[in-house]
TrEMBL record:
<keyword id="KW-1133">Transmembrane helix</keyword>
<dbReference type="InterPro" id="IPR013486">
    <property type="entry name" value="SpoIID/LytB"/>
</dbReference>
<keyword id="KW-0472">Membrane</keyword>
<dbReference type="Pfam" id="PF08486">
    <property type="entry name" value="SpoIID"/>
</dbReference>
<feature type="transmembrane region" description="Helical">
    <location>
        <begin position="12"/>
        <end position="31"/>
    </location>
</feature>
<dbReference type="InterPro" id="IPR013693">
    <property type="entry name" value="SpoIID/LytB_N"/>
</dbReference>
<protein>
    <submittedName>
        <fullName>SpoIID/LytB domain-containing protein</fullName>
    </submittedName>
</protein>
<feature type="domain" description="Sporulation stage II protein D amidase enhancer LytB N-terminal">
    <location>
        <begin position="424"/>
        <end position="514"/>
    </location>
</feature>
<keyword id="KW-0812">Transmembrane</keyword>
């Protein structure tokens, strides 16, 4: 009996021991987890913050760990001595950081040995004015909506917050979902978590799209989530503010007032809608796309000139929008500049028509007979309640704007002329069908003498370019997609012609596509026999694979155009196989004295004194110069953009020798050029030898002319200049 009791007691002890060990393990795990979430900041995290504060721009794929590039940067700057990534950020490193910034360390303020996240954040705040990019740091309070482990739409290090999508490389945020937190940010990067500020969260302007089986399905800024609810009325699809307390729905504020109409203009503060005027936009505006179930918060993504969405209004402001219609391009809105394309504002406007027309304002309409002129100035009372519209009586009628002069005279426009009054003057917008718009774009951008097949190429490019700008708005504030100058596409500078109209009709609706995307087809006048890619403008080749650097001719050369000696040899020769070889600007040369060039340069760019030397520091694929160093006897300047280089060395007073004779131009035709110096009669000269006219990205228009003469079709030509694309 005693033995049996002893065995039982021993067994009980073992069980108690196992339970205690289990509790100990669980407690240790809890402490470890709790510690990992609340322990002080380490050197890897600190280096990331400091690198951003110093203006460092991270690159993908650097090193084996997320923090390698930041650690390397800080070590290169010699900010800290003798540290490892996982080391705690201590007072020793705080002193070294203060020393690097040239500031005395305050022992009383920072008496602790290691720094918590909040303490480190305070330290950075004190020092931020001493960092080169410290002004880019900001503190943001936001609620975490979802992390990548919750939603497959969030790739890599992306987190959705109620303030937008951010990257959070190196941080642990899964435990912060549905909590209000303070973060230190730089642009779209969360640099560090600072502290929690509460578990009561209000998600504003979210879309409740279904209630089923005591579950509420909510679209939180593009993230689909479901919440358990009690027996609740089925409210259908609605915009709402949803309050959570400890991750559970606590209150719902529905927003059901809806307005709709054609969008006339968009700014960060308001959306102008036909019939409603300018309606202010809520700071937490969200647009939900019901066609692909995406969401965005940028009011500037709203397409002007179209009625595509219903707007939800609460408290007198537009809180959100539901986009339920697919975008089908029809009209384009063009801002008409003054004579000489000098300004977008007109002091007065005068219009007439060979047919009758109507002047519409404030729900009133005045009919004007054919040939009669109507004038409007900034004091006109017709502007008192909004815009003025001038509409021709017939669908094919045109409105002539007589206060504007173009190469054809006073231009006439299909569609509607719309006037809006601003402090600076009157803005004129022509809203017209895209196919009608092309009738004067195509002959303004390409000579009709090139023939119908070449004009088909231009028509497809111009239509694709126009389409891209319907959603990538240039003048959203004023209510226009593009203007009528070379900044976009030249419009109505020339009359329409039968050949160009034939090309537009033959390609009606056709655009250049790369996969499902329409290509914004860049083009330029003349190549030097070589073209470049978007690295000329600092963009990534991977983002625009259909722009390639290639030889523009019937044969290819095996030349490294980025090598200075190889490019110099190339640009001094002519190649009959190049499609542009007979064009005026295929090769050109400018010879200018050092004094004249210095005087011109100093007036445009910077006072470097008398220029002693010019050399190319960097070329991109195809040979275009993107960085040029100018050494003067007073100063040295580096020009780091294609447009600046063309501006700096152009000189309207100096003759430019071309294939077709001499010209004078205030800008260099291109940056496909070399710079050489020579002595002549005891005086120093600079010789700039180059080729081509324009940026060199995409299609050479003069090459198109030669290619059609060799029997190539417009589709073949487009696929040559934009490889991987299709006309569809």
């Amino acid at each position: 009996m005693k033995t049996r009791y002893a065995k039982r007691r021993k067994k009980l002890k073992i069980m108690v021991f196992i339970v205690l060990v289990s509790i100990g393990i669980l407690f240790a795990l809890f402490v470890k987890k709790n510690k990992s979430e609340h322990e002080g900041i380490n050197m890897a995290q600190a280096c990331k913050v400091i690198a951003y504060a110093c203006g460092y721009k991270p690159s993908d794929g650097h090193g084996n760990y997320w923090y390698d590039e930041y650690i390397d940067y800080v070590r290169e700057k010699q900010i800290f001595t003798d540290f490892k990534a996982k080391d705690a950020f201590t007072r020793k490193y705080a002193k070294e950081l203060f020393s690097y910034c040239g500031v005395n360390f305050t022992e009383e303020l920072y008496s602790y040995d290691t720094f918590s996240n909040e303490q480190f954040s305070q330290l950075i705040y004190e020092l931020k004015d001493f960092f080169s990019s410290g002004d880019n740091l900001s503190w943001m309070e936001a609620a975490v909506v979802a992390t990548p482990d919750m939603d497959s739409q969030l790739s890599g290090w992306s987190v959705c917050t109620d303030k937008g999508i951010y990257s959070f490389k190196g941080l642990k945020l899964s435990g912060k979902v549905d909590k209000n937190c303070v973060f230190l940010t730089c642009g779209s990067e969360i640099l560090m978590f600072v502290k929690e500020t509460g578990t009561e969260v209000i998600y504003k302007n979210v879309w409740i799209y279904k209630i089923e089986n005591n579950k509420m399905y909510i679209d939180l800024y593009g993230i689909k989530r479901k919440f358990q609810v009690g027996n609740i009325e089925n409210i259908g699809s609605a915009l709402a503010d949803v309050s959570l307390e400890n991750k559970k729905i606590d209150a719902i504020n529905l927003k059901k007032d809806t307005i709709s109409g054609k969008v006339l203009s968009v700014s960060d503060e308001y959306i102008e809608i036909t019939g409603y005027g300018k309606v202010f936009v809520d700071n937490n505006f969200v647009r939900y796309n019901l066609t692909d179930y995406s969401a965005d918060r940028d009011v500037n993504n709203i397409v002007i000139g179209y009625d595509l969405q219903d707007f939800i209004v609460a408290g007198g402001k537009i809180c959100g929008a539901f986009l339920s219609k697919g975008f089908s391009p029809g009209n384009i809105r063009v801002l008409l500049k003054t004579t000489g394309y000098a300004d977008i504002f007109h002091n007065k406007v005068s219009v007439t028509s060979d047919n009758g027309y109507k002047v519409c304002f404030d729900e009133k309409e005045i009919h004007v007979d054919a040939g009669n002129i109507s004038e409007f100035d900034i004091s006109d009372s017709k502007f008192d309640n909004g815009r003025i519209e001038i509409k021709p009586d017939t669908a094919d009628g045109k409105i002539k704007v007589t206060n504007i002069s173009r190469s054809q005279g006073n231009p006439e426009y299909y569609g509607i002329i719309e006037l809006s009054l601003w402090d600076e003057g009157i803005v004129i917008i022509n809203e017209t069908d895209i196919e009608q718009y092309l009738k004067t774009v195509v002959p303004s951008e390409m000579p009709v003498s090139f023939g119908v097949e070449a004009l088909k190429v231009q028509a497809v490019c111009a239509r694709s370019y126009a389409y891209k700008h319907l959603t990538n708005v240039g003048y959203a504030l004023y209510g226009a997609h593009v203007d009528d100058s070379t900044q976009f596409q030249v419009y109505n500078n020339n009359l329409e012609f039968d050949a160009s109209n034939q090309a537009i009709l033959a390609t009606k609706g056709e655009m250049l596509r790369y996969g499902d995307d329409v290509v914004q087809a860049y083009y330029y006048s003349t190549s030097c026999g070589s073209g470049t890619d978007v690295t000329l403008w600092g963009s990534s080749k991977e983002s625009y694979p259909y722009y390639e650097s290639r030889d523009i001719g019937s044969s290819e050369r095996n030349i490294n155009y980025m090598d200075e000696e190889s490019f110099a040899s190339f640009i001094k020769q002519k190649y009959d196989s190049d499609y542009d070889s007979t064009c005026n600007y295929y090769r050109w040369k400018m010879t200018v004295s050092d004094k004249d060039l210095s005087s011109s340069f100093d007036s445009k760019i910077s006072d470097v004194g008398i220029i002693q030397n010019i050399y190319v520091r960097k070329r991109v694929s195809g040979g275009a110069a993107v960085s040029v160093v100018v050494e003067g006897d007073k100063n040295t300047v580096t020009l780091d953009s294609e447009s600046l280089i063309r501006q700096a060395f152009g000189n309207a007073a100096v003759t430019l020798e071309t294939n077709g004779g001499t010209v004078n131009t205030p800008y260099l035709p291109s940056t496909f050029c070399i710079f050489e110096s020579q002595e002549r009669d005891g005086e120093k000269y600079f010789v700039i030898t180059g080729g081509g006219f324009g940026h060199g990205i995409g299609m050479s228009q003069n090459a198109v002319n030669a290619m059609t003469k060799r029997g190539m079709s417009y589709k073949d030509i487009l696929e040559f200049f934009y490889p991987g694309t299709k006309v569809a």
